Amino acid sequence: DMIKWFFTLVLPLLIAAIPINDVFTMPMKLFLSSTLMAILCFAFEIVPQTAVALILPIFWVFFNVAPANVVFQPWTQYNVWMMFSGLLMANVLESTGLLSRIAYFCILKTGATYNGILFGLAGAGFIISMTIGHAVVPMAALTYGICLALDLKLCKESAGIMLVGAMSCLVVNMAKFTAPVLMMGIGESITGPLELLGFFESWFINAPLILFFVVMVFIASRLFKPDQPISGKEYFTQKLKEQGPMTTDEKKTAAVIVFYFLFIITQKFHGFEVTWGMAIIPLLMAFPKIGAATNKDIQRVNYGFILFITACMGIGAVAGSLGLGQIIVQMVMPLLDGHGHYTFFLIEWVWLVACNFVMTPLAMEAAFSLPLATIGTGLGLNPMAVYYFMISSVDQIIMPYEYALYLISFAFGIIRLTDFMKLMGIKMVVNLIIAFAILLPWWKLIGFLYV
């Protein structure tokens, strides 16, 4: 902790010690030093994330770094409200039992053998993540329950089930059409307003990333292949029977989700703004007689995460108002002159994977979305390609502490560290190969790589 505090205090002070001039103004000095301190607090987790997210924008306004209408501009965008609605919908999905029903159904359909459990979890996670998302915690609890029911303690088989459950919620997110929402908000001052990809369009564009997910589930099934055959058909049949017929709350939840899904894929027919619709429709779950959300579901929403997201988006808004993006371009572009776009993406991948050892993925998205979008745009690249590539890169870890959402599954205590590192190390190598051998050429072929 002392080492963490040393860097958190000293590095911002070094920036604060730089003399101001016509380019490096006092507002810019205050912005860079305060933002660096906030990002280090996020990365080292030495101050509660919510506290930092509250203090940072207030600091900017109080010390005249930027006006309040710039600092709090993210609250006027759909991103924040869509995330709140998504978190609420995930809570309802868990509390009504619909999540476990979907998982049990998928597992039984894939045979309920060990491989069937893995691919069933992968299918359930894919369905939930692509439509709702934010199901990492309930999925971790569900996979833990499955391991206990099959009497799998600390072993390779339990590692496979737990990690496939985690990957079904996290790796899949690389291809989700809402995945770059945070980065779009941060980089908007440089890129201008960007539109989300269509629901199925994102699958088409990111097909190699979906292939990557399938390959990783297959690798997990071989890497953690049980010494003795495992069959959970009786258990999952019994669990599904115990749930009985769908309850009224489950039916209401399912109806809202179906309506939500249809609204997304029929946007070109109804003409309504799909992003604001995605913020409104899940809230129907809280309406009497319509949905199944309770006060407890609403209270369980992670409001601290929402505050964190808006603070990160505020970094982009303030940086844009100070002209920081153009300064980055002027400094970095000469270094990339004469190099191909693959060089830029390789540097991006290596840099983000390296930073994962000391920063959380969200902290990296907050810190690097703006400069990477600025450089990428200067090279003629599509900023959405830069963002999707960034999402894929920050997911590449070796140790559980690097990514809190993987740490949730590891914290249940039935994954050996060697098994975790083995699968994650393979995942990193496979991601690098697919990214440069398939993904980037695919984007170039379909015209997504360039503006």
What is the number of beta strands? 0
- What coarse outline follows from CA principal-axis ratios? globular
Strand content: under 5%
* SSE succession: HHHHHHHHHHHHHHHHHHHHHHHH
List low-pLDDT spans: none
**Distance between the terminal alpha carbons, to the nearest Å?**
44 Å
pLDDT averaged over residues: 86
User: Treating each run of at least 4 consecutive H or I residues as one helix, how many helices?
Assistant: 24
Describe the protein.
The chain is mostly helical and 451 residues long. The chain is built from 24 helices and no strands. Helix 10 packs parallel to helix 18 (303-321). It starts with a helix and ends in a 5-residue tail after the last helix. 46% of the residues are buried. The mean pLDDT is 86.
Question: Which descriptors would you attach to this protein?
Answer:
0% strand, single chain, 451 residues, mainly alpha
Which SSEs are present, and which pair or pack?
Elements: H1 2-16, H2 26-44, H3 49-62, H4 68-71, H5 78-95, H6 98-109, H7 114-131, H8 136-149, H9 156-170, H10 181-191, H11 199-205, H12 207-223, H13 233-243, H14 248-265, H15 267-270, H16 274-280, H17 295-299, H18 303-321, H19 324-336, H20 341-355, H21 361-378, H22 383-394, H23 404-410, H24 417-446
Short description:
By secondary structure, the protein is mainly α. The chain has helices at 2-16, 26-44, 49-62, 68-71, 78-95, 98-109, 114-131, 136-149, 156-170, 181-191, 199-205, 207-223, 233-243, 248-265, 267-270, 274-280, 295-299, 303-321, 324-336, 341-355, 361-378, 383-394, 404-410, 417-446.
